[in-house]
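Quick question: what would this complex look like in 3D?
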Amino acid sequence: AQRVTQPEKLLSVFKGAPVELKCNYSYSGSPELFWYVQYSRQRLQLLLRHISRESIKGFTADLNKGETSFHLKKPFAQEEDSAMYYCALRGGSEKLVFGKGTKLTVNP
Amino acid sequence: GAGVSQSPSNKVTEKGKDVELRCDPISGHTALYWYRQSLGQGLEFLIYFQGNSAPDKSGLPSDRFSAERTGGSVSTLTIQRTQQEDSAVYLCASSLAGLNNEQFFGPGTRLTVL
């Protein structure tokens, strides 16, 4: 079975502080992992995917197959990073399996 | 070009009524997905269409839910005899064919069942 776990429903940090949103997955094959973000009153959009190995808006995420994790990190959080973040997995089919999401609040 | 559009943006209905939710995918996208976003449940996959292939209905929660895609473009999600637990935001996404293509999401339809 495919499963994505985001252990933190809420995460609050101060501007300029590092932030890490945790994501663990369960899948027997080789997964494709994604982070999606939903800003207030906006539609869900792709933030980054592990196969791209790129940094978007200062965020990075590394796939750790040993720990089955795909944590999202940013060294210096900004207020505009406040949003709902969803980790998602795609394994062997087109559909995405999402975690329940983490609401990030960056305080001034 | 326009992104994925959905209508209505909000729908309030009474328990037991049927509802239809519409999705217009991005032109040229052959793959179309429906997801449900419930409070505390995150995003759940419902159904997936790809070209002329049989849809993947594995995520539909009950036989009250059905979806069709006419002409390979517009899709309609139908919920019969709505229940209060059907209240959620229903999201549609579309993509080009192929496993490596990004899914683009619509704004969603917020369904409230009274």
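Answer marked as accepted. The mean pLDDT of chain B is 92.
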